[in-house]
Amino acid sequence: MTNYDVFNGDTDGIFARHQLRLALPLKTVNISGVKRDVNLLRHVEAVDGDLVTVLDISHAKNRKDVLRILESGAKVEYFDHHDPAELINHQNITYHIDTDPHMTTGRIVDTHVNGKNHVWAIATAFGDNHFDLAYKLAESEGLDREQTELLKEIGLAINYNSYGKKEEDLFVAPLTVSDMLEECGEDVFA
Question: Can you tell me the distance from the alpha carbon of 23 to that of 186, in angstroms, rounded to the nearest whole number?
């Protein structure tokens, strides 16, 4: 059995995946790419018994591949804040989708893991340019100004890094950023 994590290469995708795996550790094959590469599920060759976790990737643009993955017998868990268009009614898919305009995939994951390692969800809000929301979340978490500004800086830097036509256009490949976060662990302030 193979576990795949497929996530957008921006702040929201990378940090949502990080928060999820801090709370629910799982050995995974990771697939990511530049922010605008929204068809990442084409890279998944799932078989019966596999689990494919999708974070911050358009369901509408990946519907064909979701169907292909489900037909293989794999299970899919989908976390996203984009309009999914038509959802697929299948016993092997679980959706965590909220299209509220002030929602991020990081906040959806944050709810799913009951706020464990909440600071990563705050960083996703900064990365997705929801500044008012991010400051409000940081204040409710009791973060000081320096901690809040660090989350803002990290969120924006990772998000800006994700723009490019191909990975070679980026300063750091999204999978490398994700690997660096795994080394960082829970505490961004350490």
Answer: 9
What's the CA angle centered on 104, arms 26 and 187, to 5 degrees? 50
Condensed to tens digits (0 to 9), the pLDDT of residues 84-116 reads 999 999 999 999 999 999 999 999 999 999 999
What is the spatial distance between Cα 158 and Cα 160, in angstroms, rounded to a whole number? 6
Least Cα distance to 113 among 77, 85, 148, 138 occurs for 77
Question: Over the stretch 26-81, which tens digit does the pLDDT of each residue have?
Answer: 999 999 998 888 899 999 999 999 999 999 999 999 999 999 999 999 999 999 99
Please tell me the pTM assigned to this model.
0.95
Task: Map the chain to HEC letters.
Answer: CCEEEEECCCHHHHHHHHHHHHHCCCCCEEECCCCCCCCHHHHCCCCCCCEEEEECCCHHHHHHHHHHHHHCCCEEEEEECCCCCCCCCCCCEEEEECCCCCCCHHHHHHHHCCCCCCHHHHHHHHHCCCHHHHHHHHHHHCCCHHHHHHHHHHHHHHHHHCCCCCHHHCCCCHHHHHHHHHHHCCCCCC
Q: Which domains does the chain have, with CATH numbers?
A: 3-184 (3.90.1640)
